[in-house]
TrEMBL record:
GO terms for cellular component: plasma membrane. Gene3D superfamilies: P-loop containing nucleotide triphosphate hydrolases. The keyword Transport applies. This is Amino acid/amide ABC transporter ATP-binding protein 1, HAAT family.
Length: 276
């Protein structure tokens, strides 16, 4: 039997980004069943839950890789439910993936430059009109952003390396760099530390905090590493079987009985994973 959903009426004006009663169906199965939740400007907001709970599907609905069967999505109080993926990116909602999605035969810096592509002044460039000063300003700005990303994520030493030759931990860092090149307002991170050793995990966690604090980026994070989630999240939303079963601050979630029993099924294991 599925646990009861936490139903609520959210006011889009209270959140930077919110989803309202989202349903997503595949082959007659609801993989998201009426989820409503919202992230406030400047938060680090985690979405957790067991395997197959619908976490990645939520991110895919937000950045429109998937089209929800019903429900609404708001950004800055504006209904963006019908926006296309590139419109979502242009709003400043950037994304990294569970598995690294980079051009492995290209250098680190070229991958970062591709991330910036979304903010090119398409009015000028797509018309094929060459305005010298506008183009120079655009290029200078892009260079400045690229350099500050390289600095922030400490990847100067690999900037000319082909991505495919780098260890997994560094590839994940480059993926983060490419998402940052969009100058995002909101960063959607899908399992950023999965597959990493302790040192790499600590590095990425520090970078997420730096991005959040220095760039003022709002972060939505999916992660199975409960140590990271509990340490850095302001609030946590818990999904199980496509339903939201809890939402709150880490301390509340850590001790929530429904979360503990749903999360891993076995209480003792759940207690140790959630640090309760
Ligand atoms: N394109 C698709 N077609 C059919 N089913 C899908 C598709 N994408 C996701 N699903 C199903 O939706 C459910 C939720 O998947 P999702 O990837 O969102 O889970 P998750 O919570 O991110 O899990 P994990 O922690 O294992 O990554 C799963 O049962 C999955 O098989």
């Amino acid at each position: 039997m599925q646990p009861p959903s936490v139903s609520e009426n959210l006011n889009p004006g209270d959140y930077l980004l919110s989803v309202h009663d989202i349903f997503l169906r595949f082959g007659g199965v609801n993989v998201l069943a009426g989820v409503s939740t919202g992230v406030r400007e400047g938060e680090i907001f985690a979405i957790i839950g067991p395997n197959g709970a619908g976490k990645t599907c939520m991110l895919n609905c937000i950045n429109r890789f998937y089209h929800p069967s019903s429900g609404k999505i708001f950004f800055e109080g504006r209904d963006i439910s019908r926006f296309k993926a590139h419109d979502i990116a242009a709003l400043g909602i950037a994304r990294t993936f569970q598995n690294v999605e980079l051009f492995k035969g290209m250098t680190v810096i070229d991958n970062i430059k591709l991330g910036r592509h979304v903010h090119l002044d398409t009015g000028l460039f797509s018309a094929g009109i060459y305005f010298g000063s506008a183009r120079k300003t655009e290029l200078a700005l892009r260079k400045e952003i690229e350099e500050s990303i390289i600095d922030l994520l400490e990847i100067e030493h690999i900037r000319k390396k082909k991505v495919g030759t780098l260890p997994y931990g560094l590839q994940k860092r480059v993926e983060l760099a490419r998402a940052l090149a969009m100058k995002p307002r909101v960063l959607l991170l899908d399992e950023p530390v999965t597959g990493m050793n302790l040192e790499e995990t600590e590095d990425i966690t520090r970078f997420i905090l730096d991005i959040h604090e220095e760039w003022g980026v709002t972060v939505i994070l999916i992660e199975h590493d409960m140590g990271v989630v509990m340490d850095i999240s302001d609030r946590i939303c818990v999904l199980d079987f496509g339903i939201k079963i809890a939402e709150g601050e880490p301390e509340e979630i850590r001790h929530n009985e429904q979360v503990i029993s749903a999360y891993l099924g076995e209480k003792d294991l759940a207690y140790s994973r959630l640090g309760a």
